[in-house]
Amino acid sequence: MCRDKRATHSRGGRDDAGRRSPPRERRRSRSRERDYSGRRERGPREDGGGGSRRSVDEGTRSDRVAVLVDSLPPPSSIHEGVVVSIKPFGAFVQVDGYKRQGLVHISQLAAQHVEAVEDVVRQGDRVKVKVMPGDRDAPEKLSLSMKQVDQASGTDLGDGGGRLARRQREGGEDVSSMTWGLQPLEHDETAEKHSIATAVKDKANFEVTGKLAEATNKVNGVTLKWSEPHDAMKPSKHWRLYVFKGKEQIEPFHIHRQSAYLLGRERRVADIPLDHPSCSTQHAVLQFRLTQKKERGEDGETRVTKLVRPYLMDLGSTNGSFINGEQQQPERYVELLHQDVLRFGYSSREYVLLNADE
Fold it and tell me: Which of 158, 294, 330, 353 is buried deepest, with most CB atoms within 10 A?
């Protein structure tokens, strides 16, 4: 009986309720008409068949991965990237076109002092970064800087985050004609030749040398690694050195009461003690020096103005001295500017130089 019912349905007979069911052949023809009327029938792929959508997607994905470069970007190059994570000490940025992520240290986020990373960037922000020179001890690390790049135009500011440009933007003195560092003295060749011709013999030099000079440069039984230059002078402005350990502010140093301040772990001679194990006994010196600058007035006359400026010199320390995140060359005076951030060795403490008169 059941077999007869199935036969009846296949031939288009009636069901148990008495309704007539359409034959299978009629259903096929109607579905085929719908396909011809408005819908495109499925057929072989127009791209030559053969490959499936999944294989095409996998091939596209492999091409996209192949574009990413496994090596580090060249130093001093400027790129765009996305902030992928935020840490208390900085932000990690995924550089466009490269696999590796780079770290923008908190001192390299902006030219001014940054209390928290979230004050400058947030996760997902697109930023412009500059590749910093690699570390010899860790060449695989990628260090980046945001403050050395104009975030609007992508221009390379350079000079430790645009220190020269920052001074120009602040509307201060004109620095276009100034020279930086120690410059050779100008000599009058005619006067020099005349003095050589008229000189009978060299004058005796009675200055102390050798062990005697070493003995005169001792303080509390410790021989100092540096001696003050001839243009050393106590500043007239009220300079302050504010100390930050993370977000905690420590008592600042008033550094306008003498012409030089020695920083290091040797407390017998250090004016500003550095207790971190990575710092040297005589790590660096903060020296105030009298500088001259020539200016042309409105009447066309040239005037010479004198100003006492702060300088920092690393005394050949083991782990270096840093200004705004950049390691400085040892035994060279580097001029400091208002709001510069200093760091010594691997210590996390930051020393911010501020002028209380400004």
Answer: 353
Average pLDDT of span 57-80: 68
Which amino acid, 262? L
154 — phi, psi (to 5°)?
80, 15
64: confidence class by pLDDT, cuts 50, 70, 90: very low
Q: What is the 3-state secondary structure (H, E, C) of 55-124?
A: HHHHHHHHHHHHHCECCCCCCCCEEEEEEEEEECCEEEEEECCECCEEEEEHHHCCCCCCCCHHHCCCCC
Evaluate whether 233 touches 259 at the Cβ level (below 8 Å).
yes
Note the pLDDT of residue 168.
Answer: 47
Using the structure block, give the residue that is written with the tokens 């001192």. Answer: 107
- Dihedral sign from CA coordinates of 61, 62, 64, 70: positive
pLDDT at position 302 is 84
Per the CB < 8 A criterion, the answer to whether 353 and 323 are in contact is: no
Cα distances (Å, whole numbers) of residue 303 to 174, 249, 300 = 13, 42, 9
Residue of 103, 95, 91 whose CA lies nearest to 135: 103
